[in-house]
Amino acid sequence: MTTRTLASFCTGVLLALATSAGAQTDVGDAEVTFTKDVAPIFQRSCQSCHRVGSIAPMSLLTYEESRPWARSIRQKVAQREMPPWYIERNIGIQKFVDDPSLTDEEIATIVAWVDGGTRRGNPADMPPPRVFAEFDDWQMGEPDLVVALPEPIVVPAEAPDWWLNIETEPLDLTEDRYIRAVESRPSLPGADKVVHHAVTYMVSPDDERGFLNEYAVFGQCIPNGADE
Ligand code: HEC
């Protein structure tokens, strides 16, 4: 998409927002502010990654932290690059639990906030901070079954990317079980710095493979230019 089409697309969205807001409320109320309009969107869709100790390069918890990134935020959300969400918006299944993607209206709100001069707004409008599980806790709650690697993998300090196939011991299950959800995480201290991707399969007793999930810290090395 060229800069020119992007700019006119965003203007169109802005106008639509101003008209519909103006129809229902005073002009004063139509002002988009961080505390009232933008912070709730960031809490729901950005902060799981954009906070200290998580995977994204900067924190978006507060106004002070977010404002310097306004221009880049505008661009990334208008182009639907952030939050990362690769589901086609008009084909196939659309309803996902914890879908972080933004509605057209939320994108218009963020764009209007930036174009309107990144107003802070009334501090009293700020929603209470979102509470997160610690980054190295299970994000989906305590699992019924933990499958660990047979032994720790030692990664050379300087080496190219390394893809390994690791099989765990057969599971010690006494009955058939349904898999409702799977979460993967590096578990040793500091391992989150070297585990870039992990693709997990289930292997049945007759050797059929079923893909379960992919863990990916796709951005961890990018900000300092060390990777990709
Ligand atoms: C699943 C994790 C995740 C979520 C959710 C997420 N981001 Fe990101 N974001 C990243 C990572 C990782 C990077 C760095 C790599 C990249 O740019 O792809 C990044 C980069 C960015 C950048 C570019 C920073 C720069 O260097 O210019 C912006 C802006 C941004 N995110 C804004 C947002 C906003 C706004 C939201 C919510 C609407 C959001 N992100 C949601 C993980 C996430």
Would you kindly provide a written description of the structure presented here, covering whatever features stand out?
- The protein has 228 residues and is of the alpha+beta class.
- The chain has two domains: 3-125, no CATH class; 134-228, no CATH class.
- It has five helices and two strands; from the N terminus they run αααααββ.
- It has helices at 3-24, 34-45, 63-66, 70-78, 104-115, and strands spanning 197-203, 209-216.
- A two-stranded antiparallel sheet has the order 1-2.
- α1 (3-24) crosses α5 (104-115).
- The longest helix is centred in the N-terminal third of the chain and has 22 residues, at 3-24.
- The two termini are 22 Å apart.
- Residues 1-29 and 218-228 have low confidence and may be disordered.
- Heme C binds next to α4.
- Heme C (HEC) binds at residues 45-46, 48-50, 55-57, 69, 72-73, 76-77, 82-84, 100, 102, 219, 222.
Task: Give descriptors for this structure.
disordered N terminus, disordered C terminus, two-stranded antiparallel ribbon, alpha+beta, about 5% strand, 5 helices, binds heme C
Short description:
This protein has 228 residues and is of the alpha+beta class.
Write the layout of secondary structure elements.
Blueprint: H1 3-24, H2 34-45, H3 63-66, H4 70-78, H5 104-115, E1 197-203, E2 209-216
Antiparallel strand pairs: 1-2
The structure holds heme C.
